[in-house]
Amino acid sequence: MKNGIHGIIIIGGGLSGSYLAFKLKEKFQDLLIVEKSKVLGGRLCTKPVGSGMADYGCQYISPKSKELISLVSLLEKKSLLKKIKISPKKHVYISPYGMNKIPQYLSLGVPSIINSYVNKITRKTGIWEVKVGSFSYFAERIVLTMPIKQVSSLIEKSLVEKYTLPKSNYKQFYTATFLANRAYSKNIFDNSESLSWICNNKLKGLFNEKNVYTVNFSSELSIDYKELDYESRVKAMGKILNFNGFDSIENLDIHYWKHAFSSKQDHISHFFDEDTQIGICGDSFSIGQADGAIISSDKVYQKLLSSNSLED
Ligand SMILES: Cc1cc2nc3c(=O)[nH]c(=O)nc-3n(C[C@H](O)[C@H](O)[C@H](O)COP(=O)(O)OP(=O)(O)OC[C@H]3O[C@@H](n4cnc5c(N)ncnc54)[C@H](O)[C@@H]3O)c2cc1C
User: Fold this and answer.
1) Where are the domains of the chain?
2) For 18-61, how does the pLDDT look when each residue is reduced to its tens digit (9 = 90+)?
3) If we measure between CA atoms, which residue out of 102, 101, 78, 82 comes closest to residue 93?
4) CA-to-CA distance for 118 and 158, rounded, in angstroms?
5) Atom of ligand 1 at shortest distance to CA of 282?
6) How many Å lie between the centroid of ligand 1 and the Cα of residue 290?
7) Is the CB of 14 under 6 A from ligand 1?
8) In this structure, are residues 143 and 277 in contact, taking their beta carbons and an 8 Å threshold?
9) Alpha-carbon distance 111 to 34, whole Å?
10) What's CA 268's distance to the chain center, in Å?
């Protein structure tokens, strides 16, 4: 770092931000990740549930692009991903230690500041100022990696520039994690009218002693639940869980996804502005989901490498 100015600040430590750090760290030392949550991972997220653990965002990776296929192959060699069969014709990759180990592995060795919500970015005399509350970090270049609505609102309140960015329609719903018995289903993945997704993390391959479930409530039910206070919401969810065959529910915890994932997306591959040295990547670009996150991150990496001023 020269005079308190970093080479590149990556805002967001999810899959795209950590993959960018992974690629850049081989050639470039002076990186910083600034992440709003208490852990890195973004929507590749895992949490303790009783004595076990559950993935409560992305459950598995099913790579389509050459960029993600190559990353999956590397992560498989490191035992961070494992191929499992989920139907006669479909194989997917899960992480036995939890999906959040992937961004944590990719970002190893790169300084990461957690619990730091970036509320403003400004550019003065060729340097970016990245504000976290009243504290400022400085960098020659920045890359934003969050869902595009969050990117747009940060840009709107920070900059005079108007960038043309994709518009993504993210699904929104509640997710719940809990320990339970469910006598009649021995499936790894399942669904019903009220629960668009049911996953038994133990059967999936996470190292769990007991059955730890992750379920997504349907978007319709989630809209109704949003209107309720916390206690009534949990009570209503409990009834639906019982109706779906769960009993002896313990350690119930819920999370609302405002930007879960978008489907059938085909957007521009990434964003990079040479003049102001700002890049934007993440799953709002390209074909979306984990593939979009990796493809766009790779494209921004190429731009940063070819950018004439990128020197250690
Ligand atoms: C329930 C669910 C199921 C999914 N299923 C699949 C699937 O089957 N297959 C698949 O490929 N994908 C799936 N996905 C999508 C996949 O998880 C995402 O596409 C991918 O993880 C996106 O990575 P990202 O880095 O682009 O974004 P994120 O993971 O969202 O990372 C952005 C990071 O930026 C941080 N951040 C945001 N704002 C700020 C700020 N102002 N300051 C600092 N930090 C900030 C966030 O905390 C986050 O860590 C699923 C997602 C969910 C939620």
Assistant:
1) 5-44+99-168+269-311, 173-257
2) 999 999 999 888 999 999 999 999 999 999 999 999 999 999 99
3) 82
4) 11
5) 26
6) 8
7) yes
8) no
9) 9
10) 19
Whether 5-44+99-168+269-311 and 173-257 share one fold: the answer is no
- Record the tokens describing residue 90, joined without a space: 């479909």
Structural class in CATH, domain 5-44+99-168+269-311: alpha beta
pTM metric for this prediction: 0.97
The candidate with the shortest Cα–Cα distance to 54, out of 289, 290, 251, is 251
Which amino acid belongs to residue 5? I
Domain range 173-257, its CATH number among 3.90.660.10, 3.90.280.10, 2.40.10.120, 3.30.70.100: 3.90.660.10
Assess contact for 208 and 47: CB atoms under 8 A.
no
- Nearest-atom index, ligand 1, CA of 288: 19
pLDDT in tens, 174-215: 999 999 999 877 899 999 999 999 999 999 999 999 999 999
Cα angle 279-282-284, degrees, rounded to a multiple of 5: 110
Q: Measured in angstroms, how far is the CA atom of residue 293 from the centroid of ligand 1?
A: 8
Ligand 1 atom 19: residue of nearest CA: 289
DSSP structure string for 240-276: HHHHTT-EEEEEEEEEEESS----S----S-EEETTT
Query: DSSP E strands: which ranges in 114-243?
Result: 118-124, 127-132, 135-144, 173-181, 189-190, 195-200, 212-217
